[in-house]
Amino acid sequence: QQPVQSPQAVILREGExxxxxxxxxxxxxxxxxxxxxxxEAPVFLMILLKGGEQKxxxxxxxxxxxxxxxxxxxxxxxxxSYSGTYFCGTEGVGGAQxxxxxxxxxxxxNP
Amino acid sequence: GAGVSQSPSNKVTEKGKDVxxxxxxxxGHTALYWYRQSLGQGLEFxxxxxxxxxxxxxxxxxxxxxxxxTGGSVSTLTIxxxxxxxxxxxxxxxxxxxxxxAKNIQYFGAGTRLSVL
Lengths: 111, 117
Fold this sequence. Notes:
heterodimer; A: mainly beta; six-stranded mixed sheet; 0% helix; B: mainly beta; seven-stranded mixed sheet; four-stranded antiparallel sheet
């Protein structure tokens, strides 16, 4: 099943923080986060494996709560370059289950 | 190659014509995926390949759509008798394997923008 992302869209001023959530109805092995800028292909940001780890990438970090089957992406002190659509992709536990992407969260950063 | 390559980058066709879209994955990647993205929308999964096999064709919108992969490398997505609702960006991605955490990170091509007049 497709993971559910929230919010669907968010508008921020430069320097503000944002949180994007990704929830799944099934047990997860890993969560991927991708960003797609307007007119470009999605680009991989980071991957989180089960174990509740957190990852960071510049001022973008993420957490994975495998018990709740949820992941959150945190963007702190947002920059104009953070604008785009963020997708989470989830991989289920066991079996040959391909990555399934959420519907995306559109992030707009205004000066 | 260095990245996933898709061709053509743009395709304009007339309604009713057939089109072929090509994807060259990263060398050594066994898994290959096709997605469709309409303007402002998310990633609509179409089909994936593990090697030359396509275990899951459930995402193909109709029997006008088909795809194949040969030699565990190049894949083509064919749309027969194109309709205006087929207009979209078709994205291809590849990964080292289908599953396994970091091994299934997907790398996307730049896409083919299809316009059906």
